[in-house]
Design a protein that fits this description.
The structure is a single chain. By secondary structure, the chain is an alpha/beta fold. The chain contains ten helices and eleven strands. It has helices at 2-17, 23-37, 39-46, 54-68, 85-92, 104-116, 154-164, 226-235, 250-253, 258-264, and strands at 75-79, 96-101, 122-125, 139-145, 165-176, 186-187, 193-194, 205-208, 220-223, 238-244, 270-277. The strands form three sheets. Strands 3-2-1-4-5-11-10 form a seven-stranded mixed sheet, sandwiched between helices. Strand 6 and strand 7 form a beta hairpin. It starts with a helix and ends with a strand. The relative contact order is 0.15.
């Protein structure tokens, strides 16, 4: 109970103090503890290779692999790897895989799963905005899947992505769609979908998400307008090669529960960028 009260207090303080200056490192430690507390819950939620999350399995993962293309015999950095299902797929596709995550407990789970499958993956505990163990211009490609909205220091992380990538290296980044907050969705009697914001859309702010089934508490994310992401990518030295809003394909619609078809064809869940280092 005491820990939950402290967590609530920290969230309130974050909301009032914002994301500026020296607070960013404090914020990252706070986010790290959230993920450490829910590491096993997250592993249970994701399941085998992300299949428990239909949005990932049927929408965003196909877009990620389309943008990433061939990874055989190249070095790929999985930023914010979580329990590691993408890193295991990358390794099975022939990539040399390095992964980072600030949560030591998620890294431990990822290592255990890779060991079961006898995969050689380099797991590291690192802050995405301060990737100290990776040399400049040593990475061929980066994937960053549903991580950017969790980062207090977005600009620092994107600059680090650019630093570690080789010239003309590419990054595939996917994150929750900032224009359409899932937690505020309402359906009117005429089936119109209505979204709302507790804070102005153009104001960067901290959001506490509702508690999902299977979790002990809701997650905390950092809302930024879509244009902010776009500007930070450009400022860090990236060219935007491709942009998408993952959307379930006609082929997959025939294979999944009709309730997911209705949900996925009416509500945008994420955005996907293919970035190239200039």
């Amino acid at each position: 109970m005491l820990r939950k009260n402290i967590t609530t207090l920290l969230i309130v303080l974050l909301i009032f103090h914002g994301l500026k200056g020296a607070d960013k490192q404090v914020d990252q430690n706070f986010i790290k503890e959230i993920w450490n507390d829910r590491a096993q819950e997250w592993s249970n939620y994701i399941g085998g290779y992300g299949k428990n999350d239909p949005n990932r399995a049927f929408q965003s993962d196909p877009v990620l692999w389309h943008m990433l293309k061939n990874v055989e015999n190249i070095t790929v950095l999985d930023v914010g790897c979580g329990e590691g299902y993408l890193s295991r797929i990358l390794s099975s596709k022939g990539a040399k895989v390095i992964t980072i995550d600030s949560s030591n407990k998620l890294i431990d789970i990822a290592k255990q799963k890779a060991k079961i499958e006898s995969l050689d993956i380099d797991y590291r505990i690192e802050d995405c905005a301060h990737i100290k163990s990776i040399a400049s211009e040593s990475i061929d490609k980066i994937i960053c899947n549903y991580v950017l909205m969790d980062l207090p220091d977005l600009e620092g992380a994107i600059h680090e992505f650019n630093r570690v990538l080789k010239p003309s290296g590419e990054a595939v980044v996917i994150f929750s769609h900032p224009c359409f907050p899932m937690e505020t969705i309402q359906k009117n009697p005429d089936l119109a979908i209505v979204y709302g914001w507790k804070q102005p859309y153009f104001k960067e702010h901290v959001m506490k998400l509702p508690q999902w089934d299977g979790f002990s508490d809701g997650f905390t994310i950092f809302h930024r307008p879509l244009s902010t992401y776009w500007k930070i990518f450009k400022k860090a030295g990236f060219e935007i090669i491709e942009f998408d809003e993952p959307y379930v394909s006609e082929e997959i619609r025939k294979q999944i529960d009709p309730k997911f078809v209705e949900k996925f064809t009416s509500m945008p869940h994420s955005v996907a960028f293919l970035l190239c280092k200039i």
